[in-house]
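Structure first, sequence second, as always.
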């Protein structure tokens, strides 16, 4: 798995794909991955916020929706120490909507 600190945060697809890998890893191992706090710290330092763009605020652009998706992942990491299982499906829907691979 690529290191979160080395990602290009302007690469929405790369960031969302990393979060899916992180979600898969923490879910499949059946324990709370200790680095979740570091992931939260890095994402927040890069300007992402838990529960960002909820409601109608997330609609309208790919960028707004990325902030929403990362915000949902962050909120779950902060409260449950893992990303919710439906996250990959949300990312796939986002990719399809905006023609991303």
């Amino acid at each position: 798995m690529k290191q979160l600190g080395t990602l290009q945060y302007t690469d929405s697809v790369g960031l969302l794909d990393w979060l899916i890998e992180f979600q898969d890893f923490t879910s499949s191992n059946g324990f709370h991955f200790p680095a979740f706090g570091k992931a939260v710290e890095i994402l927040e330092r890069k300007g992402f916020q838990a529960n960002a763009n909820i409601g109608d605020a997330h609609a309208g652009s790919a960028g707004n929706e990325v902030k929403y998706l990362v915000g949902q992942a962050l909120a779950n990491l902060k409260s449950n120490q893992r990303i919710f299982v439906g996250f990959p499906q949300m990312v796939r829907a986002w990719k399809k909507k905006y023609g991303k691979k």
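Margin note: The mean pLDDT is 85.
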